[in-house]
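Anyone opening a protein record will find just a pair of labelled lines. A complete record is shown below as an example:
=====
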Amino acid sequence: MFGLGVASTLLLATATTAVAPAPAVSFGAFLGSGQEGVDRSELLEEWLGGTELTVGHTYLPGDLWSNIEGRPEFLAPWAQWRREKAERLFVLNVPMLERNEDELPDEEVRELLRAGASGGFDHHFATLAERLVAAGLGDAVLVLGWEMNGTTYTHRCAPDPEAWKLYWRRIVTTMRAVPGQAFRFDFAPNRGTDAIGWDQCYPGDDVVDIIGMDSYDQPPGETFDEHISQPYGLQYHADFAAERGKPVSFPEWGLFRNGDNATYMRRMLEWIDHVQPIYHTISDYCPHGVWQCLQNPASSEVFRATLSAASPEPAPGRGPRPGTTDPDPGRGPRPGAG
């Protein structure tokens, strides 16, 4: 992990016009995994003319079980942020397996999923739950095993969907058994089919609280209408959740393959307003982002105009530096790559 010195390099716009109604949907941005992510939240709020970020989003490292267990020093800055205002929501992506980005072969993944389904890793998730509760984060939204329908992560589903579902169920059962918890578990595949239709990985309504989706401006689908209508696309996501009486979310979204695409940005924000997710968080670093990444000015203007609490003025110094990449390369490869 490393910091980008955002506080010393940002030139923040000052709102001078009448305040508009705040966004109806809780939102935030991934701005860094640790203290730097918390610190940048306030600066992003200023850039948005005072609009408050009510969602704080970070990722547990997936390299070692000791990190997946949630080190207290890692959780502490987010616990402090969460305590400051009752309306804030803490969202934590939780890997289901260590060596989560080591490109393990399907055979090994299958063995690990079956070990998890048999209870071999329950104690790690019990420890995580206990530490979250002790930190005051017992009401966190946990995005468990995200992008499971893809190929990027060891916690992928395709090598053994039945074992994957049983393993998810064990994790949720284990964590819900910890006194003081009120966790909500978010099932969040990639948009589209990817390696497997994500409904084949769905573990059951009794162990899923939110049905999320990571949706970037990339294939499958060349246009936003195709993002909506494609198999396992945005409409299928909304319908799948509605049939089960579940709220939706967008834990990760942003620009990608098509560069600075103001049309995607406008349409995605319109879709969010249409389906009213419980929360959404944009991945705010290059190439996905609109504040820390300076290479997307047209999309940035759309985002800021839509979510700002006041009519935005130009903010040429909004990001740390042109070409900024992932503010925390230890978090994982680019989101949506799976």
